[in-house]
Write a structure and sequence with these properties.
Layout (H helix, E strand, L loop, with lengths): L12 E6 L3 H4 L8 H5 L1 H14 L2 E7 L11 H4 L1 H4 L25 E4 L10 H7 L4 E7 L1 H14 L3 E10 L13 H15 L2 E3 L1 H9 L2
Parallel strand pairs: 1-2, 1-4, 2-3, 4-5, 5-6
């Protein structure tokens, strides 16, 4: 059991950076992930490596319309979203965090659900570039990273998740016990590594790319 990438062809590989937005990363943000903020230097180093190696870099932003018409069950799950206090398209909080290194020419995929594939043209853009391998990083590990990389696997992409360039926040007790951000992150990576994708560090990814 478990999946391993044997090689990485830069010309057929893309990195997707998931939802590195102010509403997740800024101190005091409604959906704050301090661990997400802490891993930005590792993420930025990986983004720059990909650029130099010829690997396409995509970014996503989870956003909803101000009138709430596209929130669906997110309005039930997340009070800050329902109240219009988080992830509202066009607001400063929905923009990518200022410390995240994105170039203007790198695609930014707006999405309204956890997966970057759901209701977007992300797959069309990947296929149009000849991409068959997708590497994911960003926030949160258990929701949008998890959903995106599982959708990629369902679509027969070869996949990887960068363990040190993903993060989440603490989960309160919803009747089944609380989990810290570190515990949620670790548990998600265990599940992904067993059933879905190659979980590897950013260093392992760069080594696999430069020394196939």
């Amino acid at each position: 059991m478990g999946y391993r990438l044997s090689t990485v062809d830069p010309a057929r590989t893309a990195l997707v950076v998931i939802d590195m937005q102010h509403d997740f990363l800024a101190p005091g943000a409604p959906l704050e992930s301090p661990a997400g903020r802490a891993m930005i230097p590792v993420l930025n180093d990986t983004v720059r490596f990909c650029r130099d190696a010829g690997i396409a870099v995509f970014f996503t932003a989870h956003v909803h319309r101000p009138d709430g018409s596209d929130m669906g069950r997110f309005a039930d799950l997340y009070p800050p979203i329902a109240a219009g206090d988080a992830l509202i398209d066009g607001t400063p909080g929905a923009a990518l965090y200022s410390e995240v290194d994105r170039r203007p020419d790198e695609p930014l995929i707006p999405k309204h659900r956890y997966s970057a594939f759901y209701g977007t043209d992300f797959e069309m853009q990947l296929r149009g570039r000849g991409v068959d391998t997708l590497i994911a990083a960003g926030v949160t590990t258990e929701d949008c990273v998890h959903a995106t990389i599982r959708d990629a696997m369902f679509r027969d992409f070869r996949t990887g998740v960068l363990s040190d360039a993903c993060a989440t926040y603490d989960h309160p007790d919803q009747g089944h016990g609380a989990m810290s951000a570190a515990e949620v992150h670790a548990a998600t990576l265990v599940v992904l590594a067993q059933s879905t994708t190659n979980v590897l560090t950013s260093t392992e990814f760069t080594t696999l790319t430069t020394n196939p």
